[in-house]
Amino acid sequence: MTANVAVETTPEVPLWNDPAHSVTTRVSALIDAMTLEEKIAQLYGVWVGASDEGGEVAPHQHDMEEAVDLDALLPTGLGQLTRPFGTAPVDPALGALSLLRTQARIASANRFGIPAVAHEECLAGFATWGATAYPVPLSWGATFDPDLVHRMAGAIGRDMRSVGVHQGLAPVLDVVRDARWGRVEETIGEDPYLVGTIGTAYVRGLETAGIVATLKHFVGYSASRAGRNLAPAPMGPRERADVLLPPFEMAIREGGARSVMHAYNDIDGVPAAADEDLLTGLLRDTWGFDGTVVADYFGIAFLKTLHGMAADWADAAGAALRAGVDVELPTVKTFGAPLVEAVAAGRVPESVIDRALRRVLTQKAELGLLDPDWSPVPPALDGADLDDPDALRGRIDLDGPGNRELARTVAEEAVVLLSNDGTLPLHRPRRIALVGPNADEPTAVLGCYSFPLHVGVHHPDTPVGVDLPTLRDTLAAEFPDAEFTVVRGTGVDDGDALGIPEAVRAARDADVVVAVLGDRAGLFGRGTSGEGCDVESLALPGAQQHLLDALLDSGTPVVTVLLAGRPYALGRAVEEAAAIVQSFFPGVEGTAALAGVLSGRTSPSGRLPVSVPRGAGSQPNTYLGARLAHASEVSNIDPTPAFGFGHGLTYTTFDWSDLAVDAKEAPTDGAFSLAFTVRNTGGRHGTEVVQLYLHDPVASVVQPVQRLIGYTRVPLAPGEARRVRVTVPADLASFTGRDGRRVVEPGDLELRLAASSTDPRLTATVTLTGPERHVDHTRRLHAVFGQEPAAGA
């Protein structure tokens, strides 16, 4: 490291810098030595942007906040740096140089030599220029493959850590309750078990790579009224406990997540940022979480400006600190001078400052940021000549072949074949009409938190930074002998129908139509999907349904391909399309994955993480509804989906048989053991996704008709059979009873082994015996699956 980034040290190592002592001892000594201003400085971040010349970062001027004077702030220290890579396009190597120089400056400016924690978004990959944009979380859910998601998260985490980032603001563990909500693309699905298992795998991947995973949004954000962003979440404690909280429980208990972000919404009048029962009583006192709670961006100020719960900034800061929020993000506002003055005036006790500070400094100590040998030089720049920024440009590749291959694997496993009359896979078609607004649009594969759409759109003169082949490109490579006619037909949401006649003419002259429809991701109304892009109904945006109907009338087989961030009602296409292929913003390799499925080079194995509605207006609805939430004689509205949760076809067929149950009775603290055979009866390799649902016919409170309690992927060659065994603990039958405690009740249950929530294949009726049994957050969370070759296979 050259002199211009050196951090001065004293010959004698202070107690807080001495690794020979426990973290607790070191942190206590440091807290005792700090002034009030130095303590509070560790509890907020500053939003910055890296320099593309390798110089120090500059404060980012956000339209919701006033400018920040770093020179004035740094002598007392700084808790976090907000998005140094994810604020503006910057070469990764020069961004890393800019960050290390800033970290050296921060450490040198405060008398304890404490650097900042640098955090970034990583919802669909490291959200920085030139980094791989992976499929969005809704695609992770469609894979039903936690091991693959773990591998992906590890790759993302290693890229972030290599350039000096410490914390990632992911995963989103919100369970979809209303698909009209704009942020559905950021979620993993509508089932808490799927969200929990996939989300926990992502957490483990990040944490194994040394990145602090941040669970968001805690809790209730996805249950907002009418799917409107930040709207109140009208729910009772039982829905919160049984649907929305379990993914967070799992990710903390099994994933080792070290940070949680509070949600924006209120539940029954109490905003999450000011909910002490939630952030301290449940999260810490009950679950034992010992990490940091960070604010969603501007969320503490919103206690005053949006919720009307605070009279001034100090009031908002005090409410958040008392509730259990430790760090204000993205920049200093309420935790700055207003909080200092409030403590001095006795409005906010210093004890809540110390409590938050202890958590923040403990995490910094665990990250090595208090060690005497700490260096601001990240691994990717180790040994580089830091005095020659031009020589560094292009040194770091965040979109290498390994990343791209992993991105393609995730995208391939996430493609869901919804329907198929035998048209797919396509057999060397001579003339293909490629129609629709997403057929030749490079960014149609990206979600709203991908760098090109989140930040890059504000820098139109800067190259996108990653290779984004369109579906036109990949299909042309997949079918080199075919003749393509490409017609846009209409825009995503402009309502323009003038191009539809041309699209119909192209369809009539073709052997097959590939209609590529769906969304444009964006933020706050700049897209049809994404944060702040909520919709009134689940009809296809703009004139796309009119285009689709006109294509169906052409007489040519129509393969409908969706590149979207949420499920949409497809009208006549459900019955009349030759095939429907669903993809949820599949990332940089998404069009290659789709082309492979259309040609048959790969066999689809994705399953729906959210139900696809039959009608555009029958919302909110999820498969998790109780009996009266489904079709009934007491309402004229039928919410039955066109394609249910867990649905997905393959290019082969499977037979399920020979169900055996070891014992049909078990005590309320016992388990059931089942075994059955799955056989590939078709002519192609394929993967069946075995899903286990629980139906409780009689319970002391109203229950969903069924809920997912386990799943496993079963890959099989043609003719191959495997014996699948599963052990089901009685704990999985637990729910929140009338007294607010989780209970396992005796009585009959149905264990449904199914290909989807609408396609049960084998059912075991079993009985729990003995007394009611109360369980808590230490209960068993999983059915245990095993596979072996079937006898005689």
Question: What report would you give on this structure?
Answer:
By secondary structure, this protein is α/β, with parallel strands linked by helices. It has 22 helices and 28 strands. The strands form 6 sheets. The protein has an 8-stranded mixed beta sheet. A 6-stranded mixed beta sheet has the order 11-16-15-14-12-13. The chain has a 5-stranded mixed beta sheet with strand order 18-26-25-20-21. Helix 12 packs across helix 13. The relative contact order is 0.10. Mean pLDDT is 96; it is low at 6-10. GO terms for molecular function: hydrolase activity. This is Glycoside hydrolase family 3 N-terminal domain-containing protein. Belongs to the glycosyl hydrolase 3 family.
Going by helix content, strand content and strand pairing, the class is alpha/beta
* DSSP strand count: 28
Average per-residue pLDDT, rounded, comes to 96
Estimate the global geometry from the Cα principal axes.
globular
Low-pLDDT sequence parts: 6-10
Rg over CA atoms, rounded to whole Å, is: 27 Å
Assembly of the depicted chains: single chain
The side-by-side strand order for the widest beta sheet comes to 2-1-3-4-5-6-7-10
| Distance between the ends | 63 Å
Main sheet attributes: strand count, strand direction, barrel closure:
8 strands, mixed
Q: Give the % helix.
A: 25-40%
Proportion of strand residues = 15-25%
Features:
single chain; 793 residues; alpha/beta; eight-stranded mixed sheet; 22 helices; 28 strands; 26% helix
